[in-house]
Amino acid sequence: MDVVVSACLLGESCRYDGASRPSAAVRHLANATTMHPVCPEVRGGLPTPRTASERQGDRVVMRDGTDVTSAFERGARLCAEEARAHGVTLAVLKAKSPSCGVGLIYDGTYSGRLVKGNGVFAELLEREGDVCMVSEEVVESSRPSVEHPVALVLGTGLGHLSSLVHPVRHVDYHDIDGFPEDARPMEGHLFEATIGTVDDVPVVVYPGRIHLYQGFSAVEVTSLVRHAYRLGCRVIIFACATGAIPGNAHTGLGILTDQINLTGVNPLVGDASTRGLQTPFVDMREAYSPYLRTLARGVADDLGIAVEEGVYAGVIGPSFETPAEVRMLAGMGVSYVGMSTVCEVIAAQALGMNVLGLTLAANYAGDGQVSHETVLEEAGRHADSFERLVRGILRLL
Ligand code: SF4
């Protein structure tokens, strides 16, 4: 996987004052991928050290009043060409910089105030499309540690990943706050979380879940998410079995890009404060982290694992879809349909967690071929690919 990185994040002394801003998390990612360090300002011909500059609308002006817009644009062009030449899919860029800033930059008054917008280089990359741009803050917030393990919530037939965990401790689901006392595992599920490591990455694995169709509430089915958050997890990976919508997806492994909640319920309804939330009005524009999705896609491509991407629709079940419902879902742009995950993703977003959604489409929705046994059988066929994909993602985090 090829990644472009602001050189100063890797310790190069290219900042305006000749300093660097190395980030341990970005260095880790650099070591695990094919990294291309770039400094658009130096590539544009500006010296190091140099006078600080900030964006003022379309212009870039140094503190002494010198207009350096053309140098910034030249450097951005050269660095974007390099990214294109290497087929880069991810750019990790220094936050707030007039060249590299993503989403927020200094406003040109040298007062420390920030405005919405991109630096000159980030703006160019965004215009050219197809590169996921994140600041180092996103990489750092996704970096696992003992204090912040990665949570894995596994669906039907995918629970075997628990066997990879070097366990430190087990937690019976029934000891988890809010988990219903009368919930019993279905075949293929286990109701015991394992805290430990996979390939030295701290994790908490939940090898089964409960569903709305079993009669549990949206708040109850999201109790594992809140437990993971309380344990310190800031990245949560959901894996679920689904049906592929004919014409929009094939059976096999998929990365979820977005979701449609068709369950008719929402875990944020009611008194949000009792669930540790500041507000129930949660921004869902990036329900599935673009950064984590890009890493997953990169791992799959590097390992030669066939993976599609698409929108997930969550329905309450337990009956399967009618032909009319399948046609409706296809028309809505849905690739995968299932009976879990959507409420959990909403709960995770409300807590500010970074979410990755993976699916195993075991059959085509509406084909009448699905049963618990066929899902287990299909999951077994993809077990090795799924395991390699998850381990590859954990290695990059
Ligand atoms: Fe760092 Fe980008 Fe500024 Fe260069 S242009 S010093 S890489 S933030």
Describe the structure.
This protein is α/β, with parallel strands linked by helices and 397 residues long. The chain contains eleven helices and 17 strands. It has helices spanning 24-32, 40-43, 69-85, 120-128, 136-141, 218-221, 223-230, 290-303, 323-331, 342-350, 372-396, and strands at 2-6, 34-38, 53-56, 59-62, 90-93, 104-106, 114-116, 132-135, 150-154, 166-172, 192-198, 201-206, 235-244, 252-261, 307-314, 334-338, 354-364. The strands form four sheets. Strands 13-16-15-14-17 form a five-stranded mixed β-barrel, surrounded by four helices. Strand 6 (104-106) and strand 7 (114-116) form a beta hairpin. It binds iron/sulfur cluster (SF4). Iron/sulfur cluster (SF4) binds next to helix 2.
What is the topology?
Blueprint lengths: L1 E5 L17 H9 L1 E5 L1 H4 L9 E4 L2 E4 L6 H17 L4 E4 L10 E3 L7 E3 L3 H9 L3 E4 H6 L8 E5 L11 E7 L19 E7 L2 E6 L11 H4 L1 H8 L4 E10 L7 E10 L28 H14 L3 E8 L8 H9 L2 E5 L3 H9 L3 E11 L7 H25 L1
Parallel strand pairs: 1-2, 1-5, 5-8, 9-12, 9-13, 13-17, 14-15, 15-16
Antiparallel strand pairs: 3-4, 6-7, 10-11, 11-12, 13-16, 14-17
Helix pairs in contact: 3-4, 8-11
The protein binds iron/sulfur cluster.
Concise summary:
With 397 residues, this protein is an alpha/beta fold. The protein has helices at 24-32, 40-43, 69-85, 120-128, 136-141, 218-221, 223-230, 290-303, 323-331, 342-350, 372-396, and strands at residues 2-6, 34-38, 53-56, 59-62, 90-93, 104-106, 114-116, 132-135, 150-154, 166-172, 192-198, 201-206, 235-244, 252-261, 307-314, 334-338, 354-364.
